[in-house]
Sequence to fold (515 residues):
Amino acid sequence: MAIQHWRIRDRYYRLIGSKCTECGAEFFPPVYKCKRCGSEKIEDSEMPRTGKIMTHTELHEPMPGFEDQAPFHLAVIELTNGARVLSQIVDSPGDTVKTGAKVRAVVRRVRVDGESGQILYGYKFIVD
Amino acid sequence: MARNRAYITSVGLTKIGDHWESSLLDLAVEAARKALKGAPKLKPQQIFVGNMFSSMAASQEHLGALVANALGLEGIPAFKVEAACSSGGSAFNVAYSLVKAGAIDSALVVGVEKMRDMEGDSVSKALCMAESAEWTQFVGATFAALNALLARYYMEQMNVTRDELSSIPVIDHANGVNAEHAQFRKAITPDVVARSAMIADPLRLFDCAPTGDGAAAVLLVNDKAASGPKRNLVEVLAGRVTTAVFSLYQRKDMLRFTATEEAFKQAMKDAGLSPAKLDFAEVHDAFSVTGALSLEAMGFSKRGMGSKDAAHGKYNLNSDLSINTFGGLKARGHPVGGTGVYEISEAFLQLTDQAGKNQVKDADYGVTQNVGGVDTTSAVHVFGRAA
Fold:
């Protein structure tokens, strides 16, 4: 996990996804081929940092590496350009995490890699 | 050239649950030997083993050769097929496709998983390997969390209540009571689901299939290998595997299980069968919401009506369409790589009148649906009594 994190750290820090230069559709996570028009003319594109919650959950039984954060909120977020992000929602009172709530991206510690001790950072969202 | 036909001659099942005294291989061999007893003179030409995470659970890969060797069948081609929780159904599909194409006359398919030797959080990690390491595992989303996101969306978009969502697990447990190989043999009510521990809001413990050890096996043959009367055989009428947009949240419509839609549509066309002819369906309900959306994807319920129809009795044993006749994933259990082969074995038991108290009256046709990911891969097979 740690090596993957370094390879794509710009994407985790700056929400860099993909833009189709043929039809203009934007995607996060990045794609190799446009999901809308099928073009392979794809370039990196920084996503808008605001959007709204489409659906959400509070996770009580986490995976290894996330125990100290549980329970925590996860949400599918639709960004203002239509791209979708799966992310944790943090620093927000539980009753504000609801469908339709406006959110914005922040950079936070994601977890500490158990083997290397490396601290991994990435995007999370807060309710605005 | 005459059209090849494919038949199941026999099946072998282990009870699903805690098998502390048995290894992954012990379970696979037990199920395989039971299946092979159905055709004692036959030596299968190939072996396919459906399994998802033997490397994590048992430090073991190379399952094809391992199982072949243990059965004294070394020498024949043998493979592991992996497609997350649809590994079993996908392994069967490869075998079926080869028999149907005339490339081989017979095959042994074994689906096996050993989950109970792992701690719960390790199982969560292993299951989540069906999803993207970089984008889903990275943010800490377990498989239950993904299905919880889906469940909330389903309930909010389709006005589905808590009790309605519980209706498919309730059917599963009702059917599991009389299923000898089932992990849980106790009936439940919607209230039991609603009061169980919260896993990922709104999904509770009884919305989720349990972890368990288990293996199932089927012996597949063509006309040539199935010499003699076909009376006690089951014909595989069709089988399709399809895939969808990989991650649930990237799909245009999160509430459409397009992999199952396509696999089911294609398989029914191949079988030349109208869905109304089906007497039972073994549905991949790893979570209550996935059961509902699967019923909708196969057209048995209208959109948004899967759970509601189940709550109104549409899918009880011996209703027009019986579902999960031995308890489904929730009560029979879900040893992930084995599940698809359990479903197919259950179809065999129904269509050879060996289902005991779970027998669907006058069952002539049935369908199995086995999913990997959140309907990312779907393996659908259609079965009928052999003529």
Remarks:
- Chain B has a mean pLDDT of 96.
- The longest strand of chain B covers residues 234-243.
- The interface with chain A takes residues 120-122, 124-125, 128, 132-142, 144-145, 148-150, 152-153, 156, 197-203, 245, 247, 249-250, 254 of chain B (CB under 8 Å).
